[in-house]
């Protein structure tokens, strides 16, 4: 019987066109995705370059699994429908009396559907296989086909997931006899998966998360998340422990679910029903069987068929439809889960380091953004449900013969959808406000909520509603319609990859908007609304089209619908079409005109080609001698109301070389500018594309001679849709590199070697090594200057304060404008900024340095923390390294961006990076990042503005790593050593994670190529560990000597080698290996506790026996593991019961061994350190015994995670 | 007002000619459309009710050209399809209010009064707050009548409304229908001859998309006066009689003998008794005459 049903079902599916449509869609989708990642569109758009092999085992696994998730949306209509078909056709009333068993029936239904799903999955695999190999893909990104990658992805992840989700959907549909229920279940499962993922995102929960992820992704991540480029390209996902447990758990759940179906399924007429209330006691019921002749006398009522009445009716119908949506439980469950997501996100919003932010309304709105998916799904789904509602409920026979016009019915569905959207947006508002109140925060900006949600956001959803109604009306199957809509929505942004870059060609795309406290929406709204208006026109055209295809009555074929549509296309309709089309196209043309014709817009392909051309044309001048800028004097006039600037300036330049300079290469930007040298010259080459001009001096500039350049720069007027000025209404922040000319060829070349090869460019040389003594002529900040004298006059509107580096000389008001004259009394780098806003100022003093914070009114929360941070940093740096070079230090707020940047005596600091942090000072609180960032930026006054590295590899170690080190040390002083573990663990995790995204190569710290994860995360870990190994005083002593030697030096500039040599000089021989491991190579430890026991001794002390492993290896620049320096000197250890030995480099290492206990402090258990000492380790497997005074609770090898170790979780073990 | 159907033809995608060059004139009063399952009754009624378009032909109701001006007809149309559903989780009252809105009744008080009245008429007032989806078959049919009354229709089309109703419900339904149908045109399709006999002042027999016969029920019976004969026979003799006579129907008696009815202008033989013609006879004769001539 099983096979009869099974093959009958298969045949049914194989005869249905839908099966082949699904296959075709997935085949095309996977083909396209695979081909795109493999660079098939390189000829039309910018070159795809990556260090990743796209069809590596991990690549195949990720793409394959990602595409399979889309199939889950088809489960209700395949797996669910397999059983629901019998209910729907009422076949079940006959079928269920037939002599087959439950098992036969259920298994045959389920597995036949699984086979069909598998067939569709197969097309994904085939699509990917072909896609990677399409002619035109980039062969450097693709390796030979490896069936194992596909096979493993399939049987390890995809098949169990299909069985699990299939079983759940099958169960839900079987019991509810409702496809929609199955559908909602899929959405809810995806939501729930997302929620669990974010709840368990903490690294400490990784094991748990790995087991609990029903998709198994977290389980494979458990092993692969720290994989380097090499490992990602070469290795198969290991099929072991956590992955297998995860798969077994979820296969177990799948069988359980199916078992429940089997147990509770009965061949019965009616669906199972659940009730939360007790069953009402049954009552015998009879109806009246006699009588019934009545006199019919209908009351006289007015029947009104006017347009106005139809409008009123439309509104009324929309209320009925709206009620239907709101009462339907798919909607309720989406809202419920969406709410949970919102709350989780709100708790997390703006928390970069586990520290929460004050719940400003704009942050609440940002958090509500997570609801987008819920609103879109509801829109897509309910558009389908409403359009087909009367058909599904079989009411169309009654409804379609009433004298209500089609437009009224159609419009009512649209209005109902919009009402639903408004309700959902209200949910965001209410939850945001509730969250604010819950946090005890009462600055609720109701107006902002309303403006953003019901103005700006709603219009976006309405445009989706247009499309949804159109597609659902034409398709007439809500689930297929939803699927198509999802594909469209996911597909639209991907068009960019295929070279369709401009929003004007992509439905409902366009510039977004952003809000911040200082500048509000700035000027983003007019652009946003222009595009939205354009798409509303486009959407209305879709609506008109849909209304042509609106089904009234019972047409029997699409051809009939087509001919009905044709007959409906009468004069008024045609006029509306023409008007809308004309509006849409003229609007589109206006936008295109503004962004493409009146504005130089370059596609990413053109940008790539221009970069090539630039290098080919001008690189030859790179080493051409140029004068150096020695003094800068600028006037900067900011016109806030019109967002314009006009500036002029004078560079004093000196020929510091030993040759005569005959030409000046002036590198500027496309702002309207004028240039005037005080020496006679001729403009021999003017390039208006690359803005690179060559002036030939009549008399060469002799060594030691000087000259000046006077220039003016202003912006082109801002025009419709195009902003040509960086000036904003409140909170302008511009630096000199954005505006002012520089001298000589300044790089900006393509870096990817494969792309360069394509354009016949020689391979990209890394920056020179620090050992290259000929490359030390420039700092990594500027190529045309060393240290300069600086003076600036900045003017702004009368109600704003303008700031530039230097000391305020004079401030005055003239013609309604406010002027500030700043002058620096010491040499600075050629790197300065202008800020202007309506500021409040807080002042303080540290010794004789005046401290100022220029902040936005309302952002007073953390000013004291910032002041403390400034003082602490000034204290630490000046005590340990050298005196502070200025008499003043200013923090200046700018609107947003999440960063701060240190200029001479001036630190622009973005409003969302600390000003609104809600710091929890208790031990459980997160990182006080306001304080940490302040300390870091102030430290840059030394580590960048006193000591600046030459433009060679490793330069940022001297600035960023050291500033980060200072921040850690100052924090350690505040908080104590034990508290540092959470920062170190965070840095370690960030380093290990971000290095996996490395696109080119990872170099050791002292040769780093500028990557953030090396210079910040690894840098801070390394210097912190080093200070622990050789002592903070010793390290700082060496740094002090070093600073003395190199601060404010003229070229040749210092390098990382110089600094490391100073450190080496104070490091004992036994620890020289630390310098090699940390600075000169990439070295990774694998330390773990194997076992630990403690026994109480007779004298009341405790003996702790610890067995632990220590091993380390090096990574090459691609991340390949090397266990030996010479090829023969690795050591190994074969643990009992294992077949693969643990390998390691030779060990002569000193590693922390720690023993801890817990103490009750004020009712809270706190960790206390009983023992911490470095032990010399020479072998992999180690056993030691330590005696401590108190009862220990935990032991650890490198317990504070000072060393780089890819599994930091197994460094400690509880006793 | 008169409904005039001229040369109406409708062929479905699968090649079935559901309506075949059909001509029909229907005046005020109850009109019974009698036909076996699959005769094309529903197709015809759906076409009149503007739910589907014919391939050719015309339908006029008074001066309304139904195929050209569907809206005009819908204003005066009451239609009850053979099977219909209702929106779940909506009470009769709410659903009727909804339909009243669709039918152009703008004033809320008007709607309330009308809904109350139609609920009274159909005896649903007591259960007006209950979800219609939970109604029994009879109640649901009555609800169908209730919604149909809302626009005070001039043309009422009901498609096999009594199928599946118990005798009490059937009577009640027919009574209500009769009551509403006094001053307008009611087209009432059924395959139950009884219904027509009890109710209609005019009727037509439809099969294979064609009208086989149109007459008033009494007239039709009148025509057969003296031409219907009956006889009790053994089961074994049935085939012989079938071959020999124009057999209209045969029914078992309690003793397993058969009661046959035969159509013949004169007494076929002595053992046949003349009986009063019934509408069933009209129906079977019409169908019989339409049967393709098979080789005997």
TrEMBL record, chain A:
This is ABC-2 type transport system permease protein. One of its GO terms (molecular function) is metallopeptidase activity. It holds the Pfam family Peptidase_M1. Keywords: Membrane, Transmembrane, Transmembrane helix. InterPro entries: Peptidase_M1_dom, Peptidase_M4/M1_CTD_sf. The chain crosses the membrane at residues 20-41, 62-83, 103-132, 153-173, 179-200, 244-265, 329-347, 367-387, 414-438, 458-475, 482-500, 533-551, 572-592. Residues 911-1072 form the Peptidase M1 membrane alanine aminopeptidase domain. It comes from the Bacteria.
Automatic annotation (TrEMBL), chain B:
CDD domains: ABC_drug_resistance_like (cd03264). SMART domains: AAA (SM00382). Keywords: ATP-binding, Nucleotide-binding, Transport. Residues 3-233 form the ABC transporter domain. InterPro entries: AAA+_ATPase, ABC_transporter-like_ATP-bd, ABC_transporter-like_CS, P-loop_NTPase. The keyword Nucleotide-binding applies. PANTHER family: ABC TRANSPORTER, ATP-BINDING PROTEIN. Belongs to the ABC transporter superfamily. This is ABC-type multidrug transport system, ATPase component.
């Amino acid at each position: 019987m099983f096979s009869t049903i099974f093959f009958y079902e298969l045949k049914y599916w194989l005869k249905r066109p839908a099966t082949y449509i699904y296959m075709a869609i997935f085949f095309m989708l996977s083909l396209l995705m695979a081909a795109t990642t493999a660079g098939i569109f390189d000829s039309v758009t910018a070159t795809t370059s990556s260090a990743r092999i796209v069809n590596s085992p991990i690549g195949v696994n990720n793409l394959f699994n990602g595409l399979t998730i889309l199939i889950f949306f088809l489960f209700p209509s395949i797996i669910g429908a397999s059983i629901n078909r019998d209910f729907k056709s009422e076949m079940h009333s006959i079928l269920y009396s037939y002599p087959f068993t439950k098992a036969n029936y259920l298994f045959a239904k389920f597995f036949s559907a699984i086979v069909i799903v598998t067939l569709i999955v197969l097309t994904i695999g085939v699509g990917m296989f072909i896609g990677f190999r399409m002619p035109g893909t980039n062969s450097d990104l693709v390796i030979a086909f490896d069936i194992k990658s596909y096979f493993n992805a399939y049987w390890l992840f995809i098949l169990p997931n299909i069985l699990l989700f299939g079983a759940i959907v099958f169960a839900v549909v079987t019991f509810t006899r409702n496809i929609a229920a199955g559908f909602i279940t899929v959405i809810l499962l995806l939501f729930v998966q997302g929620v669990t993922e974010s709840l368990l995102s903490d690294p400490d929960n990784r094991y748990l998360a790995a087991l609990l992820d029903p998709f198994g992704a977290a389980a494979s991540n458990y092993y692969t998340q720290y994989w380097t480029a090499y490992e990602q390209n070469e290795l198969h996902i290991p099929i072991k422990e956590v992955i297998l447990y995860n798969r077994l758990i979820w296969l177990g759940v799948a069988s359980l679910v199916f078992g429940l179906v089997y147990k509770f399924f009965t061949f019965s007429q009616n669906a199972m029903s659940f009730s939360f209330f007790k069953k009402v006691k049954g009552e015998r019921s009879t109806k009246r069987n006699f009588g019934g002749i009545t006199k019919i006398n209908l009351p006289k009522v007015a029947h009104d068929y006017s347009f106005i009445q139809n409008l009123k009716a439309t509104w009324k119908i929309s209320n009925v439809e709206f009620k239907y949506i709101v009462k339907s439980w798919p909607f309720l469950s989406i809202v419920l889960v969406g709410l949970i997501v919102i709350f989780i996100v709100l708790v997390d919003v703006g928390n970069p380091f586990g520290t929460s932010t004050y719940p400003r309304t704009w942050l609440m709105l940002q958090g509500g953004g997570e609801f987008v998916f819920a609103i879109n799904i509801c829109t897509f789904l309910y558009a389908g449900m409403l359009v087909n509602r009367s058909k599904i409920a079989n009411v169309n026979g009654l409804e379609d013969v009433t004298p209500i016009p089609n437009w009224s019915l159609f419009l009512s569905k649209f209005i109902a959808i919009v009402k639903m959207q408004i309700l959902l947006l209200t949910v965001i508002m209410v939850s945001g406000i509730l969250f604010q109140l819950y946090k005890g925060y009462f600055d609720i900006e109701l107006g902002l909520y309303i403006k953003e949600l019901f103005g700006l956001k709603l219009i976006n959803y309405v445009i989706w509603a247009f499309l949804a109604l159109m597609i659902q009306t034409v398709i007439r199957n809500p689930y297929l319609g939803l699927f198509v809509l999802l594909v469209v929505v996911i597909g639209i942004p991907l068009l960019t990859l295929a070279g369709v870059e401009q929003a004007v060609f992509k439905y409902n795309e366009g510039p977004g908007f952003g809000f911040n406290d200082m500048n509000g929406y700035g000027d983003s709204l007019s652009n946003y609304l222009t595009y939205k208006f354009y798409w509303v026109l486009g959407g209305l055209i879709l609506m008109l089209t849909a209304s042509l295809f609106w089904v009234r009555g019972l047409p029997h074929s699409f051809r009939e619908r087509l001919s009905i549509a044709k007959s409906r296309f009468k004069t008024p309709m045609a006029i509306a079409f023409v008007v809308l089309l004309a509006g849409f196209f003229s609007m589109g043309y206006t936008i295109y005109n503004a962004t493409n014709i009146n504005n130089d817009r370059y596609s990413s392909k053109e940008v790539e080609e221009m970069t090539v051309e630039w290098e080919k044309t001008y690189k030859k001048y790179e080493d051409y001698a140029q004068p150096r800028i020695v003094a800068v004097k600028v006037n900067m006039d900011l016109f806030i109301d019109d967002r314009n600037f006009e500036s002029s300036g004078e560079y004093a330049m000196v020929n510091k070389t030993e040759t005569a300079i005959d030409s000046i290469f002036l590198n500027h930007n496309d702002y309207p500018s004028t240039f005037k040298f005080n020496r006679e010259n001729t403009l021999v080459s003017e390039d208006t594309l690359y803005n690179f001009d060559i002036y030939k001096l009549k008399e060469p500039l002799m060594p030691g001679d000087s000259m000046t350049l006077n220039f003016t720069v202003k912006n082109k007027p801002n025009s419709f849709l195009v902003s040509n000025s960086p000036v904003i209404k409140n909170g302008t922040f511009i630096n000199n590199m954005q505006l002012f000319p520089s001298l000589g060829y300044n790089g900006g070349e393509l870096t990817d070697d494969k792309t360069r090869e394509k354009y016949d460019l020689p391979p990209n040389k890394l920056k020179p090594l620090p050992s290259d003594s000929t490359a030390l002529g420039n700092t990594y900040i500027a190529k045309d200057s060393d240290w300069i004298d600086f003076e600036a006059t900045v003017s702004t509107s009368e109600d704003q304060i303008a700031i530039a580096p230097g000391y305020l000389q004079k401030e005055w008001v003239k013609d309604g404008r406010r002027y500030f004259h700043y002058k620096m009394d010491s040499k600075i780098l050629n790197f300065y900024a202008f800020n202007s806003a309506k500021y409040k100022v807080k002042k303080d003093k540290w010794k004789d340095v005046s401290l100022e914070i220029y902040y936005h009114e309302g952002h007073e929360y953390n000013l004291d923390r910032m002041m403390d941070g400034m003082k602490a940093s000034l204290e630490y740096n000046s005590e340990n390294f050298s005196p502070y070079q200025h008499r003043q230090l200013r923090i200046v707020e700018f609107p947003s961006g999440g960063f701060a940047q240190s200029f001479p005596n001036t630190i622009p600091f973005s409003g969302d990076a600390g000003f609104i942090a809600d710091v929890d000072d208790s031990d459980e609180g997160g990182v006080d990042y306001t304080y940490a960032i302040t300390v870091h930026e102030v430290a840059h006054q030394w580590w960048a503005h006193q000591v600046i590295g030459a433009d060679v590899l490793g330069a940022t170690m001297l600035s960023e790593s050291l500033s980060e080190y200072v921040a850690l040390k100052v924090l350690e002083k505040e908080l104590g050593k034990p508290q540092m573990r959470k920062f170190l663990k965070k840095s370690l995790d960030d380093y290990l994670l971000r290095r996996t995204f490395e696109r080119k190569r990872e170099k050791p710290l002292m040769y780093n190529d500028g990557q953030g994860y090396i210079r910040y995360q690894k840098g801070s870990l390394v210097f912190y560990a080093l200070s622990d190994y050789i002592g903070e005083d010793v390290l700082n002593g060496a740094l002090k000597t070093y600073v003395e030697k190199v601060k404010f030096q003229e070229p040749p500039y210092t390098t990382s080698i110089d600094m490391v040599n100073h450190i080496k000089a104070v490091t004992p021989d036994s620890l020289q290996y630390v310098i090699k491991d940390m600075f000169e190579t990439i070295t990774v430890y694998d330390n773990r506790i194997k076992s630990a026991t403690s026994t109480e001794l007779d004298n009341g002390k405790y003996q702790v026996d610890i067995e632990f492993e220590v091993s380390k290896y090096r990574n090459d620049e691609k991340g390949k593991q090397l266990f030996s320096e010479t090829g023969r000197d690795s050591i190994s250890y074969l643990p009992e019961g294992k077949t693969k030995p643990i390998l390691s480099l030779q060990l002569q290492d000193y590693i922390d061994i720690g023993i801890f206990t817990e103490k009750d402090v004020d009712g809270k258990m706190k960790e206390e350190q009983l023992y911490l000492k470095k032990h010399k380790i020479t072998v992999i497997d180690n056993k030691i015994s330590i005696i401590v005074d108190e009862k220990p609770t935990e032991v650890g090898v490198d317990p504070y995670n000072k060393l780089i170790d890819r599994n930091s979780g197994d460094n400690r073990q509880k006793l | 007002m008169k409904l005039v159907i001229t040369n109406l033809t409708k062929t479905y995608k699968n090649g079935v000619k559901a309506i075949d060059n059909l001509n029909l004139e229907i005046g005020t009063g109850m009109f019974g459309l009698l036909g076996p399952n699959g005769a094309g009754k529903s197709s015809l009624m759906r076409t009149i009710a503007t739910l589907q378009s014919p391939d050719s032909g015309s339908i006029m109701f008074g001066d309304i050209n139904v195929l050209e001006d569907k809206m005009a007809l819908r204003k005066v149309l009451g239609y009850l399809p053979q099977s219909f559903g209702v929106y779940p989780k909506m009470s009769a009252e709410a659903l009727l209010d909804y339909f009243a809105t669709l039918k152009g009744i703008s004033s809320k008080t008007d709607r309330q009064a009308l809904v109350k009245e139609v609920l009274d008429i159909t005896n649903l007032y007591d259960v007006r707050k209950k979800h219609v989806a939970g109604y029994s078959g009879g109640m649901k049919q009555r609800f169908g009548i209730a919604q149909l009354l809302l626009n005070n229709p001039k043309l009422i089309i009901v498609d096999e409304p009594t199928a599946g109703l118990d005798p009490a419900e059937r009577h009640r339904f027919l009574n209500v229908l009769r009551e509403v149908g006094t001053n307008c045109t009611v087209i009432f399709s059924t395959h139950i001859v009884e219904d027509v006999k009890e109710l209609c002042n005019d009727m037509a027999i439809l099969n294979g998309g064609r009208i086989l016969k149109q007459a008033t029920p009494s007239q039709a019976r009148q025509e057969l006066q003296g031409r219907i004969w009956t006889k009790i026979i053994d089961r074994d003799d049935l085939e012989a009689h079938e071959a020999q006579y124009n057999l209209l129907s045969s029914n078992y008696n309690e003793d397993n003998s058969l009661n046959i009815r035969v159509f013949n202008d004169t007494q076929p033989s002595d053992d046949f008794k003349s009986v009063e013609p019934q509408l069933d006879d009209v129906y079977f004769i019409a169908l019989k005459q339409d049967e393709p001539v098979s080789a005997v």
